[in-house]
Amino acid sequence: MLAIVDLGIGNIGSVAKALDYLKVKYQIIVNPNDLSKASKIVLPGVGSFAEAVTRLDLSGFRSALLESVYMRNTPILGICVGMQLLSLFGTEGGDSKGLGFINAYVDKIDDFNGRLVIPHMGWNELSSIDHPLFRNVHKDACFYFVHSYAMQISDKAESNLEVIYTDYEQPVVAFVAKNHIYGAQFHPEKSQQPGLTFLRNFVELC
């Protein structure tokens, strides 16, 4: 069963609609106990990192996700703030502790003293699509982004961590992968055919 975690902050409807289009069976999970039945997990999120962490803790999903991903090796795909939650901590709204799956932190995108518009919003190419989740995606494909904060990879990043960037007058982390843990800063559910292909690959390959 593919589980979509509902923290009450995600674009659940858009993700569900994309999976419906792909004819993928899924279940929207509001009770963390039900996560034990999942064969794959999608963790969407929009808005503030701090608010997402608060909901993660109050709902009981933090411990359920840690158990699923660490103990049962359940594949997980974090989307937007859901990807950011995979990191050690984030600074938006004050320092907040993430899930710690990725040795990274989340901080505001540099606006170069007001010269660059924040949030980063719109369509961007990626530095590479050299990963199985981008199978059958054209190398010049664009994906849709909308965010003001981004993952910052630690200098002590794990050797098995794969990182793909987009360019917003600076390298911005767009995708991470470590074993069965994946994160997309872009919104695949809003990225038309390239995004749908990406989602299908997660369902079929993971």
TrEMBL record:
Keywords: Amino-acid biosynthesis, Cytoplasm, Glutamine amidotransferase, Histidine biosynthesis, Hydrolase, Lyase. IGPS catalyzes the conversion of PRFAR and glutamine to IGP, AICAR and glutamate. The HisH subunit catalyzes the hydrolysis of glutamine to glutamate and ammonia as part of the synthesis of IGP and AICAR. The resulting ammonia molecule is channeled to the active site of HisF. It is found in: Cytoplasm. The active site is at 80 (nucleophile), 187, 189. Its EC number is 4.3.2.10, 3.5.1.2. Pathway: Amino-acid biosynthesis; L-histidine biosynthesis; L-histidine from 5-phospho-alpha-D-ribose 1-diphosphate: step 5/9. The gene is hisH. It comes from Oceanospirillum multiglobuliferum. It catalyses: 5-[(5-phospho-1-deoxy-D-ribulos-1-ylimino)methylamino]-1-(5-phospho-beta-D-ribosyl)imidazole-4-carboxamide + L-glutamine = D-erythro-1-(imidazol-4-yl)glycerol 3-phosphate + 5-amino-1-(5-phospho-beta-D-ribosyl)imidazole-4-carboxamide + L-glutamate + H(+); L-glutamine + H2O = L-glutamate + NH4(+). Residues 4-203 form the Glutamine amidotransferase domain. One of its GO terms (cellular component) is cytoplasm. The keyword Lyase applies. This is Imidazole glycerol phosphate synthase subunit HisH. Its main location: cytoplasm. One of its GO terms (molecular function) is imidazoleglycerol-phosphate synthase activity. InterPro entries: Class_I_gatase-like, GATASE, Imidazole-glycPsynth_HisH. SUPFAM superfamilies: Class I glutamine amidotransferase-like (SSF52317). Heterodimer of HisH and HisF. One of its GO terms (biological process) is L-histidine biosynthetic process.
